[in-house]
Structures are given as structure tokens and as C-alpha cells.
Amino acid sequence: MIPSDILIPFNKPYLSGSELHNIAEAVSAGKLSGNGIFTQRCHRFFEEEYGFARALLTNSGTAALEMAALLLHLQPGDEVILPSFTFTSTANAFLLRGATLVFADSSPEHPNIDPAEIARLITPRTRAIVVVHYAGVACDMDFISSLVSQHNLILIEDAAQAIESYHGSRRLGTIGHLAAFSFHETKNISAGEGGLLAINDNQFAERAEILWEKGTNRAAFSRGETAKYEWVDIGSSFLPSELTAAFLCAQLDNRLRISKRRLQQWNVYQQALAPLMSLGVKLPLIPSYAQAHNAHIFYLLCRSPKERDLLIHHLRAHHILAIFHYQPLHTSPFFEHAYTGPPLPNTVYYAQHLLRLPLYYELSEEQQVCIAEQVLAFYQQ
Ligand SMILES: *Cc1c(COP(=O)(O)O)cnc(C)c1O
């Protein structure tokens, strides 16, 4: 619910065109459960356009991460390296499978995982590295991929925020063995709730399809590859209904328009707020390898935690909803007692200083100018 005195919300879901038409078509096709025509259309789109060996729609980005964790066959004591500055699902998926979580700090220049930290944390028990492309901005994948092959690890991209983002000529989500995308309402491309498991290494494809269909070989059966379908492995109900897939199809059809607009909006903020840099306020740093990004988030790094709180209040008083982001997982109420590693100062810094400004398709340039004016006015006081 948007509070009634808020004129500019932080996010607003967007209908790109044919969502309702697609849903009506799914209803008249007479099959609403998963893996129907719209699900298969989405899969084909991702396999052809993105080049994934296999794409499987899921109920959420969380579910896609949980499938990735299941595919690793983790044993007790196996270590998974991941950032502390991320959403709980990045960690929960692996904790649910009994992994030992090894939290890495963010880079000093931007909120993504610091590759030098990963190198420091690898042990003989390390099985996987999970990177998060924060704000749709690529992690340093050349360096991280070389660590992965040197130590024979599995690389998983939490690309929940990173649809239509690139690392040079490669799309994010195509670089790791596995990747998870989210189509939550707050993401650039949305289905309300939804996600995608992307499989780049074919060794995982067959089992992924079984986990996805409650541990059965139903998908192979429906293609006529087996005479009956049976219980063949563990699994769960990871697949979304056709209603979700129908909605998502419409958004995917419009992805280029959505990305283009968001990038325009991101650049409006970047230009309008550039004068703050001389005061010591930081704007997002996009490393040269992280082009092109998808403008998922525009953030400021305030000079102190106190200043950030005052700026949030100032904007709120002017009917603009700006919000902070992740609190560190390694010092969270749930995990702090289990955390035995060193302090992660950069993670704590982003948790305390980062402020996200409203960014959604229907946000107008006038509204953006008004937001930027209020931020500048705050710093002129
Ligand atoms: C949104 C998000 C998720 C979870 O995706 P859901 O679809 O909400 O389950 C996981 N990781 C990151 C980094 C996210 O931003």
C-alpha cells in the first residue's frame, strides 16, 4: 500500500501492453497449470535469445536459487562463498541444503562482492561461489571465473536484479554454471512474483527439470520421451502457473523499451545530481566491464548514516519515498551468533550510507527533476 500522502512512490508496477490479453488467451486455452504454451514460449525466448542451455520458469527468484542449491548436491561442511550485502534468499537457499555460509565483503568502490575477498576465502571445502549483480551492475566476472576454474568450483549468478544487463559482450546470467533471475514486482521485468533458473552447463539440465516437476520425469513424459511418469528424485513444485507465464511473456516482448526508458531515467538522475560529488556525496560507480547495465537502481552514498536518515525525512516531507537497502547478513539477528569471520567494513558502509531514489517506468522527467531539486536543496541547507 502506498501511504496516501506519498505523491512519488519508490516503485510502481507497470503494465507494458498485452499482459491482460495474454492472460485471457491462457484462460481460453483451457490449461492454467504450469508448463503450458506461455511457459514454453518464455523458455524458448530465453534459450534462443539468451543462449541458455536450458531455462526453467520458477515461482520466484528465491525458488530458482533453491533449485540451484539442490543441483549442487551439497554435503555437510561444504562451503559456499557469497556476499553479505544481499537479500536473504541468496543465503537461505544454500543454508537450507546444509551449506556452511562464508560471507565476503563488498568492494570499496561499489556494493558488489570484492573479488580479492573471494580469493582470500577459498579453502579445500569451498564448493561454490554465488555472486550478486547488485543494481544490475556486473561483478568482475573475468577475475571471478578464473578463480572458479582454477579451484574447480561451481559459479552461480544471483542475477535477480540483472535482466538485460551485460558484462562486455556477455549478458549477465550466461556466465556462471547456473543463474537465478527474479520477476518480482520490484524488478525491471515483472510477473508480480516469478523467477527463472538459467542453466548454462548442460550437466545440470536433466536433473533440474525433474526437481522442477516434484521429483518426477513428467516433463520428459509430456515430450513423449518416457512411457510413464514416475517419482525419480527429490523435488518440489517450482513451476509457476500459466497465468504468471502469460503476464511475463508480455513484459518480455517489451523488454527493450523498458530497459531503454530506465536507462534514460537513470541518466537524468546521474546528470542532475553530479554537482553533489564535489561535496563528497557519491553516485553509482559503473566499472568499465559492467556495460551496459540495466538501470535497476539509482542510489546515492551519503556522507554519514545520520545524513542519510535526515535526507530520507526531508524527501518524505516533500512526498517522495526514498529508501535504504540491505542490512548486512553476517550481523543479522539470525546469523550474527554463527558468524566467525572478520568484520566486513564495506558491507556495513553500504548498509548505512546507501539511499535509493524512486525509479519506475511511469516516473516522469518532471517528477525526477522535482526529486533532484529536493535532494540538492537538502545539501544546500
Ligand atoms: C529480488 C531478489 C531476490 C529474490 O527474488 P524473489 O523473486 O523476490 O524471490 C534474490 N536475490 C536478489 C539479489 C534480489 O534482488
* Approximate shape: globular
Helical residue percent band? 25-40%
Strand order of the largest sheet: 1-9-8-5-4-2-3
Q: Total number of β-strand segments?
A: 11
Radius of gyration: 21 Å
Q: Which structural class matches the secondary elements?
A: alpha/beta
Write down the secondary-structure element order.
HHEHEHEHEHEEEEEHHHHEHHEH
Number of helices: 13
Task: Please tell me about this protein's structure.
It contains 13 helices and 11 strands. It has 381 residues and is α/β, with parallel strands linked by helices. The chain folds into 2 domains: 19-253, Type I PLP-dependent aspartate aminotransferase-like (Major domain) (Aspartate Aminotransferase, domain 2, 3-Layer(aba) Sandwich); 255-380, Alpha-Beta Complex (Aspartate Aminotransferase, domain 1). A 7-stranded mixed sheet has the order 1-9-8-5-4-2-3, with helices on both faces. Strands 6-7 form a two-stranded antiparallel sheet. The longest helix has 19 residues, at 255-273. It is globular, with a radius of gyration of 21 Å. The chain starts with 18 loop residues before the first helix and ends with a helix. 47% of the residues are buried. The structure holds pyridoxal-5'-phosphate. Residues 60-62, 86-87, 89-90, 132, 158, 160-161, 182, 184, 195 line the site of pyridoxal-5'-phosphate (PLP). InterPro entries: DegT/StrS_aminotransferase, PyrdxlP-dep_Trfase, PyrdxlP-dep_Trfase_major, PyrdxlP-dep_Trfase_small, WecE-like. The active site is at residue 187. The modification N6-(pyridoxal phosphate)lysine is found at residue 187. It comes from Hymenobacter mucosus.
